[in-house]
Write a structure and sequence with these properties.
2 copies of one chain form a homodimer. With about 150 residues, chain A is α+β, with helices and mostly antiparallel strands. Chain A is built from 4 helices and 5 strands, in the order βααααββββ. The first copy, chain A, has helices at about 20-30, 35-40, 40-45, 55-75, and strands spanning about 10-20, 85-90, 100-115, 120-130, 135-150. Chain A is elongated. The interface of A and B includes residues 48, 61, 82, 85 and 92 of A.
Chain lengths: ~150, ~150
């Protein structure tokens, strides 16, 4: 398992990719975001998105899927997988995700510090992002995670 | 449609409720958050949650579902339904949501101001929350939305 001391500021992990199809966009929307531009191609074309568009929560949930599967493949890099995450900040969907788009997800270490309240742990701050097949940013949000220190302070 | 001038600071809308079952918790997790404590009762019992627990993204997506359906029932109150939301801030899951829990979702107007860049619009800031059947906070996040003004400034 990766320890706090091993985590390098600026390190960026490519978690994986997810392709948004008309089918999975509509299936998510039916259950969790039943707005017309997420459910129907024609309504999407007439909307400000210009095409069938994925729910922002679908885009975010697909980030979680790639993060969890990445952590399961590579147990040493579990810092992004917030099993019991307290939450996230600054969730942004700067561009729509449309049917046919493939989004590649990343996590990047922004900063870290020792925990004041839990001396055996450090706190790591990450920027989580998704880029579409044209390299355009479609998702970003800030996360943080507790990571165990190699040695407790004296 | 509700206009900027009509929006009252402190107004709180009850959007609706969503019951988390073992089946819908596992169905969400299989697609978007395949961690053992979201997929299997026994793994949930052995986890820090103590029981089969919903993904935080499932808790959030169910907020969206109730918000959209509320907006569809009551077109005058569509301010919370971020059809093209730019994003959210300070997403928190302060307590786990377990199989059998029913979460009631709310949105509350925190503040509002006229838009500087878009004079025909105002900006409304809301606090979105979810409370379980014991009244415990399980979800909170901050949102904002553009709302048309009744009359453009002279």
């Amino acid at each position: 398992m990766q320890r706090f001391e091993d985590i390098v500021i600026g390190a960026r992990q490519q978690l994986g990719a997810y392709t948004f199809t008309a089918d999975n966009i509509k299936a998510f929307a039916r259950k969790y975001d039943p707005q017309a531009f997420h459910l129907d191609e024609e309504a999407g074309r007439r909307s400000l998105f210009g095409a069938l568009a994925a729910s922002g929560w679908h885009t975010t949930s697909a980030w979680m899927k790639t993060a969890v599967e990445y952590g399961q493949r590579d147990a040493g890099s579990a810092i992004t997988v917030g099993g019991a995450s307290p939450g996230f900040k600054n969730l942004k969907w700067p561009k729509p995700v449309l049917a046919g788009d493939t989004v590649t997800y990343f996590t990047e270490v922004v900063s870290k510090r020792e925990s004041v309240t839990r001396p055996a742990w450090g706190l790591v701050f990450v920027l989580n992002t998704g880029l579409n097949q044209r390299g355009e940013l479609v998702l970003s949000f800030d996360g943080s995670a507790f990571v165990p220190r190699r040695r407790a302070p004296r």
